[in-house]
Amino acid sequence: MTKEIRLNAFAMNCVAHQSPGLWTHPRDRTAEYNRLPYWIDLAKTLERGRFDGLFLADVLGVYDVYGNSPDAALRNAAQTPSNEPLLLLSAMAAVTKNLGFGVTSNLSFEPPYPFARRMSTLDHLTEGRIGWNVVTGYLDSAARGAGKDKQTGHDDRYDIADEYMEVVYKLWEGSWEDDAVLRDRKRGIFTDPSKVHRINHESANYRINNTIHLSEPSPQRTPVLYQAGTSPRGRQFAAKHAECVFMSGPSAKIIAPRVSAIREEAAKFGRNPAELLMFNMMTIILGNTEAEAAAKYADYRSHINPEGALALMSGWTGIDFSGYELDQQVRHVQNDAGRSALDNVTRGDPDRVWTVRDVIEHVGIGGAGPVVVGTPESVADKIEDWFEKTDVDGLNVAFAVSPGDFEDIADMLVPELTRRGRYKPEYAKGTLREKLFGDGHARLDAPHPAAEYRVGKTG
After folding, report:
1. Alpha helices in 49-201 (DSSP H)
2. Which of 95, 181, 256, 432 has a CA 20 to 30 Å removed from the CA of 245?
3. Where in the chain are the domains?
4. Would you say 104 is a known binding-site residue?
5. What is the mean pLDDT of the chain?
6. Is 192 annotated as a binding residue?
7. What are the Luciferase-like domain coordinates in residue numbering (predicted)?
8. 6-155+218-304+368-450, what's its fold?
9. Is residue 30 part of an annotated ligand binding site?
10. Has 154 been labeled as part of a binding site?
């Protein structure tokens, strides 16, 4: 069978997101990021295009590596200012019926007990359309904001994350039995106390003592789990916990081995490698003719802000690019920031040498992923070829301008992919997990580690 192409929209509760400077374009509305009408209109557009979900990035902390100052990020709206993403979801869920929401939340600064309730609440209010992108952070500025001198070491953050996941699994899966809530008006009993269990946990970093989860079981219990780390330790974490894996890279040559490595790692945990859904970032720019698409792309590029692009790249890699010459080669540095972004331009493709100028050109539109430009037909050809070369399952579609680029995809590309039999003609029924993995899969099943903590299993 031909693999179905899945699409998430990739955005963030900020200005411009992955395309620094493009907020100045007359078609872009992201400067309205702090008003609900923008997000409500975007959600309606994505549902019209039958997008699987809106994947909301989030970064705690400011990009202050460039020039050892936040000034460049502030001047150019390089993901600063940035608002909390979870608060957007109820409004967008109210105007949609099928669109999923994958929201990023940094576990390094979120105590598991209140966080578990927050996600259960969203799963209830969205009727089971919530997913969590599990991240551990990479900015020292976030650690300083939380009262630490610097962030925890890269691999140590994942060790802590493993402990965190065990705690939230116990809360989501092990506290309430499925039939604990009676809603019995005649007897005046809402919940059977015998079916609600206290949770205990003690590990190096977390302790929960004789505590019940505050929310009754939500449609999915555990939200759909996304993960975005592709370093060796990140791959191990994804293989154990993730259902959907997000990765970025400029070429199929870089993405394909990452997909293969995570699938191989998943098999070591007894999971079916094919059941992990792999999404990579891509920016799509469409026109009715090739010339029209090329002109649109050239117009977009005229709005790129070089300083903003380097402020982002400095934050992603932990390298201060302010002291580099434009034609200076970018070399590998090992540090505790995110490692995949630097690998993309230093070690991922041994046949290419990147300069700082190349980094600006690459990051300026759509961040760290490829940009595909053309008519709906030619772009569909390129996407199909990308799927064959990489074995990904879907795309996290970044934008140059929003919501305009998503409107183009919904109205131009989706009909072409549907005509080719590569895109769903309608949404599947059920929760987000069921839409992604099939009817009857609202809850996580063995061998996923969350399933072993469930009590009173009835689904």
Report:
1. 71-76, 89-94, 112-125, 140-145, 154-174
2. 95
3. 6-155+218-304+368-450
4. yes
5. 93
6. no
7. 27-390
8. TIM Barrel (3.20.20)
9. no
10. yes
